[in-house]
Every structure is written in C-alpha cells, then in structure tokens.
Fold this sequence. Notes:
Elements: E1 3-6, H1 9-13, H2 15-25, E2 32-35, H3 38-51, H4 56-69
Parallel strand pairs: 1-2
Helix pairs in contact: 3-4
Amino acid sequence: MDDKILLDANTLYSQPLRMMLLNLMQLDGCTTQFFWTDKIDAEWSNALIRRHPESKDVIIKQVNSIKASFFDRYVLGYEPLIN
C-alpha cells in the first residue's frame, strides 16, 4: 500500500527540500504520495515573499508552475473538515 503524506508549509518553504520532494514525486518507482493544499501554498509562499519581497513575481510564478504541474496532488474540498 502506498504511503500518503500531507506536506506542511515548512517542507515547501525550503527551496532545496521543495525541489527534492517535487523531483521525488516524478520518479516512477516512488510509492509515497505527497499532497498539500492551496492554503499550504499560500503559507509558504507568503512567508518567502515577506522575507524576499524583491522576488515576489518569481515566487508567484513558481507556485503557479508547481500547481500546474502537480494539480493532482492538491487536496480539494477539505475546508468543511476544519473547525
């Protein structure tokens, strides 16, 4: 059975870790499935923008590229489950 892991914003904030996880997701032999949400994207990207406001456009483009490439990894419709 495949393992399913929900990534938190802190794992996506670090560029080396983010790139490693995204590359891992593209491997045919990877049996672990990684997931995250739009809210998690907003959390890590907004934190990066606060730290590097000069890179805002680059960060936004990266988030959009990740979402386009890995849309099947986004958890949708979870909001009613959160108090």
